[in-house]
Amino acid sequence: MFNFSKKNLFIAIFLISLIALISAYFIEYILGYRPCSLCEYERIPYFLAILVVLINYKYNKLEKHFILLLGIIFLIATILSIYHLGIEQGYIQESLLCDLEKGANIIDKVEILKQLQQKSISCKDVTFKIFGLSLTSYNIIISLLLTIGLTNIYFRYEKNR
Description:
Blueprint: H1 6-30, H2 37-41, H3 44-58, H4 63-89, H5 100-103, H6 109-117, E1 129-130, E2 133-134, H7 135-155
Antiparallel strand pairs: 1-2
């Protein structure tokens, strides 16, 4: 396996996260594909990763801990994406996570009517694919590779110093 300098590692994670977010917002706002609730939640780890990378430049003495934190962030992203893929494939039934938008303002009748008139996107409906795979599938691949890579770098940190 090729040897990444730690500085290049953080730059790569920053760029991967930035490209993932830009792509998601491009698909949503320019191409017009509305994401489901889980798709929106799957963006959070990329925001967190960017934040961790930026904090690392300020507190780089804690670099090993930030590598571990990034590994945990992308492990959670992998689990969330696998859960979403299970819903897409029909192995897992949609949960409250897919319907939080609808249940948020249940007290107000006007809000309930407004919610019913809006077209909601189901977590099991794949609205956008690239080469036959949903964005959730790509997110699993990216998050899993980052989790494995970061875990490997974390456990070999002292050796590669």
